[in-house]
């Protein structure tokens, strides 16, 4: 287990290094001068030259990337801002605040949105799929399968405002979506993020319903399941003790991929419900041509996706004893 984890972390670092190099080059090789966004609308040529020098943008691109990379692990010195402690992702062109501090302030919103929605999606998707597999061929199976297809056809920017109008404004069943730190008010954190979680679960649950149903039906036809039934084990015990475990491996694999989709889709979700997370931060960075902020959001998002996928892989051995991490 330990050697496997070390190899995965080492591989993740290599992947993040490649992503950072490609992203850095694409962002800083744009035809538009990034320093002009920092200078403002009225900018003299000599001021622009001074800004380029202060930000190190008058150096070759590979030298700029090396300084940026070293800053993540050892910090960095800026002529204009002074010392930037590690992990240093530079300073925003628009607000002149440290990029890493801005992301840290916003990341709990996106993380709460993603992880909370993941729990709801897995719970509803797996439960619905198991019910459909238990009642395969019956009306309940057909209803669950049909409703999942309808949910997958909807979009966040359509379902979100519609449910907000009925559940928040008209019926007043839940509060308007916002972020309340879980450390301050756990109940408020839950209730204020309930609507985004429900909307995301409606859209993403379909894949898990279909996958759970098909995997459960396949597992129930395996030889070891028939052997367990021949030994007198009840259908309920066979269903939950054997078939369920075997069906979870492919579902976890899809879940690892969908985590990236949820994090990437945070931009749409946060804009729909006016949540101030890193998705909104990325949108503002694009609008302001704030390349340090946009680069920082991209790298932090990539790191979160890689680490979450490693965690999902580690769950394989706990769910199915036949899986060995080596």
CATH superfamily of the largest domain: MetI-like
Oligomer: single chain
| Domains (count) | 2
Question: From N to C, what is the helix and strand string?
Answer: HHHHEEHHHHHHHHHH
β-strand percent reads under 5%
Low-confidence stretches: none
| CATH A-level architecture of the largest domain | Orthogonal Bundle
Helix content: over 70%
Please list the strands of the largest sheet in the order they lie side by side: 1-2
The shape is elongated
Q: So what's the CATH class of the largest domain?
A: Mainly Alpha
Number of helices: 14
How many strand units?
A: 2
Instruction: Name the average pLDDT.
Output: 82
Instruction: Give the radius of gyration.
Output: 24 Å
Category from helices, strands and their pairing: mainly alpha
End-to-end Cα distance, whole Å, is 6 Å
| CATH domain fold name of the largest domain | MetI-like fold
Task: Provide an overview of this structure.
With 326 residues, the protein is mainly α. It folds into two domains: 2-84, no CATH class; 104-319, MetI-like (MetI-like fold), CATH 1.10.3720.10. The protein has 14 helices and two strands; from the N terminus they run H-H-H-H-E-E-H-H-H-H-H-H-H-H-H-H. A hairpin with a 3-residue loop joins strand 1 (76-78) and strand 2. Helix 5 runs antiparallel to helix 6. It is elongated, with a radius of gyration of 24 Å.
């Amino acid at each position: 287990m330990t050697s496997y984890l070390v190899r995965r972390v080492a591989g993740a670092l290599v992947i993040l290094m490649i992503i950072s190099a490609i992203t850095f080059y694409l962002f800083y090789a744009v035809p538009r001068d990034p320093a002009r966004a920092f200078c403002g609308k009225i900018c003299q040529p000599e001021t622009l030259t001074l800004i380029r020098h202060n930000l190190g943008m008058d150096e070759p691109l590979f030298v700029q990337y090396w300084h940026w990379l070293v800053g993540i692990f050892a910090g960095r010195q800026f002529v204009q801002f002074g010392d930037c402690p590690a992990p240093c992702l530079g300073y925003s062109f628009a607000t002149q605040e440290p990029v890493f501090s801005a992301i840290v302030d916003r990341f709990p919103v996106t993380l709460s949105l993603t992880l909370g929605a993941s729990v709801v999606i897995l719970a509803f998707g797996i439960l619905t799929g198991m019910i459909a597999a238990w009642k395969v061929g019956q009306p309940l199976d057909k209803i669950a399968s049909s409703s999942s297809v309808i949910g997958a056809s909807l979009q966040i920017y359509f379902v979100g405002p519609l449910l907000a109008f009925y559940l928040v404004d008209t019926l007043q069943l839940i509060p308007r979506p916002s972020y309340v730190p879980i450390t301050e008010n756990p109940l408020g954190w839950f209730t204020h993020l309930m609507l985004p979680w429900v909307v995301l679960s409606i859209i993403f649950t379909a894949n898990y319903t279909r996958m759970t149903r098909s995997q459960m039906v396949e597992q129930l036809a395996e030889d070891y399941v028939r052997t367990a039934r021949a030994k007198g084990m009840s259908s309920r015990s066979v269903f939950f003790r054997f078939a369920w475990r075997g069906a979870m491996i492919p579902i976890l694999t899809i879940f690892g991929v969908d985590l990236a989709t949820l994090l990437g889709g945070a931009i749409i979700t946060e804009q729909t419900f006016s949540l101030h997370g890193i998705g909104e931060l990325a949108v503002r960075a694009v609008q302001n041509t704030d390349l340090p902020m946009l680069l920082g959001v991209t790298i932090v998002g990539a790191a979160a996706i890689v680490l979450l996928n490693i965690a999902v892989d580690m769950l394989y051995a706990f769910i199915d004893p036949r899986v060995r991490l080596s």
